[in-house]
Amino acid sequence: MGRCRSSEIILSRIEWTDDHTPRTAAWHSENGALAPRTVTVADDRLSADQAYRRIRAGAALLWQGDYNNGRQLLQALGRRADRKPNKQAPAADLGARYEHERARRRTRAGILGSLLVELDADYELDLRRAPDVRAACAAAYGPATESRVVTFTELLGVLSAYRWQQQGVEVPALGARVYPDYGVFSPTRSEYVDLVAAAPLPTGARTAFDLGTGTGVLAALLARRGLTKVVATDINPRALRCARENADRLGYGATIEVTGPTLYPDGRADVVVCNPPWLPGTPTSDLERGVYDHDQSMLTEFIADLRAHLTPDGEGWLVLSDLAELLGLRSPAHIPTLLDRAGLTVHDTLTTRPRHPRATDRDDPLAAARTAETTTLWRLRAR
Q1: I want to staple 136 with a disulfide (CB 3.0 to 4.6 A). Which of 38, 162, 186, 336 is the partner?
Q2: How far apart are CA 256 and CA 251, in angstroms?
Q3: What residue stretches are annotated with the Methyltransferase small domain (predicted)?
């Protein structure tokens, strides 16, 4: 589900003073955040309360203390942010509760994102007890060119993604592991993969499109099911690279063609699979573009153009959760209306329940929606 356009990262400059000496470095933010205007140096002598007050006053803190202490400071800042919500959560309205939760998380992320670290021109992190981050940063950002400042939370995300990239994610339906790159949505929710594995193929199907391929997991699954030509697309350059690598690693390099940036490739296919972002909303990073579909543009384009890309007996497989409907973010009539306008009919549906931990977390503010959520594969045909 890495179905997203990669953010264009423009390295602006960030300035601060260190021991009365002016300093500057490139500013790098994967979510496109502007460089902070006020930056002060901080180390182990700064208490969590002091750090929180400085951040709330508008300053960003460039961490120069111990690495592990910096991680502990992030946790302490998170606890303080959680103690002071911006307003009381709505009691019953799930849509309002969802918007409140997103706003709360944005505020929290802004506070945690005000703790910064500097990477030198070789991606070395010059902090006491710091791990070697050079390989992880090179994998995420490409070759180093100059020193840069990033948020501590972004660096931790880079390190976490690199571990996934090294160890891979087991996909039972595929009988193998796939290896997600940084900025590409990881297929840790297996129910949508299982639906694609279980859906009956149209009689005589040989070709398929996998739209918004991400890691390439669904393209690989279609190849494993015997389709002889699979074209996988994405608009995220990182996803295109990741899908090619996974196809080659799994032995499907000759079967799977990865192309982009685009949603639909040229031509027609017997099966066209699309697993668009499940929630309407504005994403703030490449990973969020795997969750939030701005103006529902991907869903709309997939349905509107599907008929022109199906063979006469072909099927389009739309894999989508109903969480948006449960939260009031999308009308239950929205998808049927789009299908009717596009001249499509629903031949069949396959439905399953999510199995991820949040689906049974009663403390989740959106528990009422998550416990009722279903994921459906719609088998669509031209009318």
Answers
A1: 162
A2: 10
A3: 178-321
Cβ atoms 153, 189 nearer than 8 A: no
Residue with tokens 């006469």: 312
pLDDT in tens, 60-85: 999 999 999 999 999 999 999 998 65
Q: Which residues, other chains included, contact 72 with Cβ-Cβ below 8 Å and sequence gap of 6+?
A: none
What is the CA angle 282-186-115, rounded to 5?
60
Closest CA to 142 of 51, 257, 238: 238
How far, in Å, CA of 355 to CA of 352, rounded?
9
d(CA 18, CA 222) in angstroms, rounded, equals 56
Count Cα neighbours of 237 within 13 Å in the Cβ-side half-sphere: 7
- The tokens for 65 are 């203390």
Indicate the DSSP class of residue 337: H
The residue with tokens 């050079």 is: 134
Beta bridge partners of 379: 317, 348
Q: For the chain, give the mean pLDDT.
A: 91
Six-digit token string for 303 = 């349905």
Q: Which H or E element spans position 89?
A: none
Q: Report how far residue 347's alpha carbon sits from residue 379's, in angstroms, rounded to the nearest whole number.
A: 5
pLDDT for 366 equals 64
Q: Which domains does the chain have, with CATH numbers?
A: 36-164 (no CATH), 170-382 (3.40.50.150)
Is residue 257 classed as helix, strand or coil in its secondary structure? strand
Pairing type for strands 279-280 and 12-18 reads unpaired
**Which has the closest alpha carbon to 231: 214, 207, 200, 261?**
207
Rounded CA gap, 292 and 129, in Å?
Answer: 37
Which pair of structure tokens corresponds to residue 166?
């090294």
Residues 301-329 have pLDDT tens digits of: 999 999 999 999 999 999 999 999 999 89
